[in-house]
Amino acid sequence: MENSINSHSNRWRTLFALWALLALSLPASAAWQAGVARVDITPTEPIWLAGFGFRTHPFDGVRQHSFVKALALQDDQGNRTVLITSDLLGFPRSVSDPIAARVEKQFGLPRERLLLNSSHTHSAPVIGNMLLPAYPIGDPELAVIQRYTRWLEDQVVEMIGRSLHDLKPADLSFEQGLAGVAVNRRRVGHRDYPGPVDQDVPVIAVRGADGSLRAIVFGYACHNTVLNDYQVAGDWAGYAQAALEKAHPEAMAMFIQDCGADANPLPRHTAELAEGYGKSIAAATEEVLNGKMRPLHGPLSAAFVRVDIAFEPPPSRQELQSRLSSTNEYIRRNAKLLLQRLERDGKLPDHYPYPIEVWQFGKDLTFIALGGEVVVDYSLRFKRQYGFDNVWVAGYSNDVFAYIPSRRVLLEGGYEGGDAMLVYGQPAHFTWTVEETIAEKVDEVVKRLRAQ
Ligand SMILES: [Zn+2]
Fold it and tell me: What is the CA radius of gyration of the chain?
């Protein structure tokens, strides 16, 4: 009898062990489906490279091919969502809006389920109307930019279609590492300034049903400004993606630029440094991939809103006309652009409709994607508010049209809240309410999504 009881409980123990083994080897969130696609956007026609005002001619070589990449996700409720990353300076609204409209029409993807981020590489073509007063260019160069932009829009829409066609069972997981590449660049020339940086390396791993890696989504908050010559390149983020794809040939590496508006990789300006920083960020990502990652569950709920952020009063027509004879070329070009707008609209805008997109992955991750060049204070603020372990704050998303200074940065002064507005063609600085206006709207959206 005793023996029989023992053999009975042994059988149960074996069955339980088998069940546990099976449960562990199954993907933790098999309800996901994921699809990936990419398109090579390396320009062929001579075109101006974006981000620096001192360049005097179009690109004359290719250091690295540049790409736009798509990750399509479908959660267990059938919601489809697409993340776009790119080796571009930024998607201005004049480019992202037409793409989003076509994607909604062709694939039924609502605006809040498309997110366009850019690495902010300063070695990619100028697109749309972004940062135009920064460059000494005329109509012939603008015609090339318009032609390339239209071609790019077609390529991105077609690629999104391919990513949706590629959907198959997948498993998502998340964790973060750290890397010490970013330096708060406002301390250059202002040793006394505080030097906050966000050195987190958030990573989402997308694995297929067989456990193999299909996509590696990784973020960091730092300008891609190591390279400043005439070669097309993804800068350090391009090298980081290339290193990860070399180590994982079966996977696509996608870089997300976080709130790195006031961070630079320092020192700069050689290809060796760009490659070295890329390898550092790739190594930090590898550490996360090789460690224990937390499963990401659905459903994936999403919101996209615009909130008006206020400008200081704009300059008068008379003031703008006097600026046309300024010795500063950026002031002259900004004045010319604003006078055209004044002519067209009868007035200059007193606010900008600021895009905020939030994705909530079940109870596991809140992904906040902000428009513009966002300074680090926003990232640290939202992580403090909502949690450092389960919050990802991206900048450079959906519309890059200005720097987004915090209250602190506005009070301190300097480029990010000041002269940068000129080269972006904006009429005036943002008022000191900008941070609170954005934070209040983010809070409203995050609370709503988290409550669902
Ligand atoms: Zn920038």
Answer: 24
pLDDT at 23: 46
170-189 per-position pLDDT tens digit? 999 999 999 999 999 999 99
CA of 68 to the centre of ligand 1 (A): 19
Facing residues of 304 across strands? 357
Helix (H) or strand (E) holding 302: strand 300-310
Strands 373-374 and 403-404: parallel
Using CA atoms, how far apart are residues 357 and 361, in angstroms rounded to an integer?
13
212 burial (CB, 10 Å; 0-12 / 13-18 / 19+) is exposed
Ligand 1 centroid to Cα of residue 401, in Å, is 10
295-335 pLDDT, tens digit per residue, is: 999 999 999 999 999 999 999 999 999 999 999 999 999 99
**Structure token digits, residue 449:** 């999504």
Q: How far is the CA of 352 from the centre of ligand 1 (A)?
A: 19
311 C-alpha to center of ligand 1: Å? Answer: 20
Give me the residue spans of the domains in the chain. Answer: 32-305+352-451, 315-348
Checking DSSP bridges between strand 114-116 and strand 67-74, what pairing results, if any? unpaired
Whether residue 3 is predicted with pLDDT greater than 70 in this model: the reply is no
